[in-house]
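Hi V.,

Quick status before I head out on leave. The structure for the redesign project is tokenized and pasted below; the design run finished overnight.
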């Protein structure tokens, strides 16, 4: 007796951002620009293509993968523990805001708005934690300008993926 399991393309495409959100930081965690761009693309794709209840794994998995890998911030990785809840909040902010305003402002304006919001929130939190010597100074760059840049580049990657992969292969 043989059993065949069939998985639709839409199922694969809806789970792909979640798989990417863990595997990319775990396997390529040492390069924040590359990793952050791909993870932010996965966040945006998830915001555009997935339902609200599908977003929680993608919010938490990237920073958990980095923590497991233990190399993205060099010797400062344990300080990431203090930032993780705020990174999760920033990722949620990206998805929730994207879902709320993208139809009104368009894709690329929404990418810019969410990039500014996420980078601002994470930068301000990193500044506050630095004042209490909880995180090192390198977190200001990682949670500020690099977050903004990887959100913008992630937006471009997401746009290409949505246009050429998702919209052409949804069924």
């Amino acid at each position: 007796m043989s059993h065949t399991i069939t998985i639709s393309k839409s199922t694969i495409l809806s789970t792909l951002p979640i798989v990417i959100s863990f595997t990319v930081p775990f396997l390529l965690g040492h390069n924040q620009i590359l990793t952050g761009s791909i993870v932010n693309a996965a966040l945006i794709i998830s915001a555009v293509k997935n339902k609200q209840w599908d977003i929680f794994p993608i919010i938490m998995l990237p920073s958990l993968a980095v923590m497991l890998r233990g190399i993205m911030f060099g010797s400062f990785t344990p300080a990431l523990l203090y930032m993780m809840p705020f990174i999760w909040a920033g990722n949620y902010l990206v998805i929730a805001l994207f879902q709320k305003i993208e139809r009104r402002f368009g894709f690329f304006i929404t990418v810019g708005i969410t990039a500014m919001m996420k980078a601002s929130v994470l930068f301000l939190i990193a500044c506050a934690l630095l004042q209490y010597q909880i995180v090192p100074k390198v977190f200001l760059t990682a949670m500020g300008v690099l977050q903004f840049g990887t959100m913008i580049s992630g937006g471009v990657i997401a746009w290409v993926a949505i246009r050429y992969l998702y919209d052409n292969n949804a069924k």
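Above is the designed sequence. Residues 9-169 form one domain.

G. will cover questions while I'm gone.

Best,
W.
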